[in-house]
Amino acid sequence: MSTMTIRRRLRLTATATALLLALVACGGGDDASSTASEDESASEDASATEEDSASEDESASEDASAAEGSGEGLIWVGLPDTASSARWEDFDRPAFEAAFDEAGLVADTDYIIANAEGDPQNQQTQAEQALTQGATVIVLTNLDSGSGAAIHEAAKAAGAAVIDYDRLTLDGQADFYVSFDNTRVGELQGETLVQCVEDAGIEEPNFVMLRGSPDDNNATLFGEGADSVLTPLESEGWTRVDDQAVPDWDNADAQTIFEQMLTGANNEIDAVLAANDGLGNAAIVAAQAQGLTDIQVTGQDATPQGLQNIALGTQCMTVYKSVNEEAAAAAEAAIALRNGEEVEADETVDNGTADVPSLLLDPVAITAENLSDPIDDGFVALEDVCTGDVAETEFCTSQ
Ligand code: BGC
Fold first, then answer.
1. Is 85 near ligand 1, meaning CB less than 6 Å away?
2. What is the 3-state secondary structure (H, E, C) of the chain?
3. Whole-model pTM over 0.90
4. What is the pLDDT, as a whole number, of residue 26?
5. Is the CB of 181 under 6 A from ligand 1?
């Protein structure tokens, strides 16, 4: 076994799979990286691709275990809250745990997953504590770009690498960004809403926007995508009767906002561009309280609640984002950075001050037509969808 120190680069691309590794072994030089002798699971990464310069270093194939945890220090994952979406605790956390565990990392020793419970100050404290404990990689889903940038600053001052997870930190210092094509998410919501309105035989609909949190860069992108579809329709008979953002994606506030929208519009609302399943459900509950059952409502996250509402016919669509793939890619990048490797990607995203190498995965629209997709994909369990009244729906009885 060679004891030579090598420097490697991990390349993450959306095209093959998020887990495709293309390792470059550049002979010698960089003592920030692990040594060949530490790496044992060579075979899994024999797929080193066109950039592979294995011939430069005969030990390259032996060293291709970038996904293994040979680096040092904690990887800290900071999730934002438990209330804005079921995803963070129900999907993201277990997906990170699975990815880290598979790479041989040990919870609490090698990685920590924290949740800031919606409090940016709390998130900063959690991150600082992790840095004090020797965190070498910070994986952050910020609560707003200002507090996120402060965490990046602290991380960089401590010599840690930073990954923005799902939400870009504007003017931050991320080394890598993993997310979805968030403008596309909004386009899918808009396009599918148009289809649902047509299918329901509604002409000249009144519609409203229930946008995500103004502090979340993703909410801006979702809104831009949706507006790109819906704004042109305003000269073709669609009327935007209200348009509001929901601070912190607060589902309870969304219900109040939507109740006020209904009152303001004399209940004449046909369609709701709701930015995620929680906001969509808030609109559905408020509409049902007024006896309105034909409203077309969008969502996002393919949560059990969103899928149930689709099965019941109260929600027209959700957006499935494979969080398992997203978290696996972020975990892989985190492990590589912890190992002192560079992480590369096919694209970059401008955060306002820098172009951040980024992996943006593809979102998928889910309607009654392809409702089983997130279930077949192993994302949500059928038992979590087909409960209570939902068990009696055609979708559930036909499974
Ligand atoms: C995420 C969505 C989520 C929302 C609320 C966004 O940044 O991309 O998946 O529904 O935050 O948590």
1. yes
2. CCCCECEEEEEECCCCCCCCCCCEEECCCCCCCCEHHHCCCHHHHCCCCCCCCHHHCHHHCCCCCCCCCCCCCEEEEEECCCCCCCHHHHHHHHHHHHHHHHCCCCECCCEEEEECCCCHHHHHHHHHHHHHCCEEEEEECCCCHHHHHHHHHHHHHCCCEEEEECCCCCCCCCCEEEEECHHHHHHHHHHHHHHHHHHCCCCCCEEEEEECCCCCHHHHHHHHHHHHHHHHHHHCCCEEEEEEECHHHCHHHHHHHHHHHHHHCCCCCCEEEECCHHHHHHHHHHHHHCCCCCCEECCCCCCHHHHHHHHHCCCCCEEECCHHHHHHHHHHHHHHHHCCCEEEECEEEECCCCEEEEEEECCEEECHHHCCHHHHCCCCCHHHHCCHHHHHCHHHHCC
3. no
4. 30
5. no
